[in-house]
Amino acid sequence: MRILESFCLFLFGSYVKSMALESNETVSLVKRRRSLGIFKTVCYPGLGCFYTGPPFKNIPNRIVSLPPLPQEVIRTIYLLFTRKNRNNPLSFSPENHELLLKSNFNSSAWTRIIIHGYTDGTYASAWLFDMKDEFLRISDDNVIAVDHPTTFLFPRIIYPQSVADCRVIGVQVANLITFLHEKFGADLKKIHLIGHSLGAQIGGYAGELLPNLGRITGLDPAGPYFRNVANNVKLDDSDAMFVDVIHSNPSAILGFGTNEDVGHINFWPNGGKQRGCPLTIARILANGILPFERRFYLFMIF
């Protein structure tokens, strides 16, 4: 385990060092050694510091605890949709929230923030656009998609790295919501985060920083590295005034979603076992993870 973690940390260090040659805003690494050099702390301007030790290091539930990558690598992008621009979203980054000041954002409406999961991406996710269309059909909402597209590229394709990066994206989302509240007077109780897989855990990190956040919906919150850990490491019912969760793939051994009741209300369609979707490695490689694909439509029905 120590060898695996040391190797992953070496890859992280090498990658960040290469990024430092390309950007003057690259991460400032501090406190390089803790506990015999195993635990690290990284600090990013405007986002704070992130420690890799307990509770984020948790054996056997979190064998590897990596530092999150800098925002220059994660490359988070937001897409704002409203009824006035259903198909032509305003694209902006965490560094230029001010673009919203000249947008169609409606401070009196609900704001739905949708966050995709691991190895996913906004433009590759038909479900996200279906969900956006459904929200706008029903109500004159603000819909913001959170895209962190480098999740399918090295080094973020390494699952423990994407897990770590959730912490940075969570702070970015919290900063966005704070901006909406301070500049537009948006009511935190009318902010609704909807996250799939790691996106649900990102929603939890954002909610932890925002007292009185209205609602978080978790669509199969990621299970690996988030089971049997402290509440501040995962989505839980303290992260918003109302947390609802759909569990469609929750097996503790083979499931990709959590098998824990982490919300105020937890839905377990068919007891968490979906007909026609046997979870085998061969089936996953051939057809993808079918329960995940179905869950979005279950959410729309609810």
Summarize the amount of helix as a percent range: 25-40%
Number of DSSP strand runs: 11
Strand order of the largest sheet: 5-4-7-6-8-9-10-11
Tell me, what's the shape?
globular
SSE string, helix = H, strand = E?
HEEEHEEEHEHEHEEEHH
How far apart the termini lie comes to 42 Å
Structural class: alpha/beta
Low-confidence stretches: 14-36, 280-295
Biggest β-sheet description: 8 strands, mixed
**Beta-strand residue percentage:** 15-25%
Estimate the mean pLDDT confidence.
81
Instruction: Count the DSSP helices.
Output: 7
Supply Rg: 19 Å
Keywords:
302 residues, alpha/beta, eight-stranded mixed sheet, three-stranded antiparallel sheet, 7 helices, 30% helix, 18% strand, signal, AB_hydrolase_fold, TAG_lipase, Lipase
Give the helices and strands, then pairings.
Layout: H1 2-20, E1 28-34, E2 39-44, E3 48-51, H2 71-74, E4 77-81, E5 90-92, E6 111-115, H3 126-138, E7 142-147, H4 159-184, E8 191-196, H5 198-208, E9 215-219, E10 242-246, E11 265-267, H6 281-287, H7 290-301
Parallel strand pairs: 6-7, 6-8, 8-9, 9-10, 10-11
Antiparallel strand pairs: 1-2, 2-3, 4-5, 4-7
Written overview of the protein:
This protein is of the alpha/beta class and 302 residues long. The chain is built from seven helices and eleven strands. The strands form two sheets. It has an eight-stranded mixed sheet with strand order 5-4-7-6-8-9-10-11, sandwiched between helices. Strands 1-2-3 form a three-stranded antiparallel sheet, with no helix packed on it. Helix 3 packs parallel to helix 7 (290-301) and helix 4 crosses helix 5. The termini are far apart.
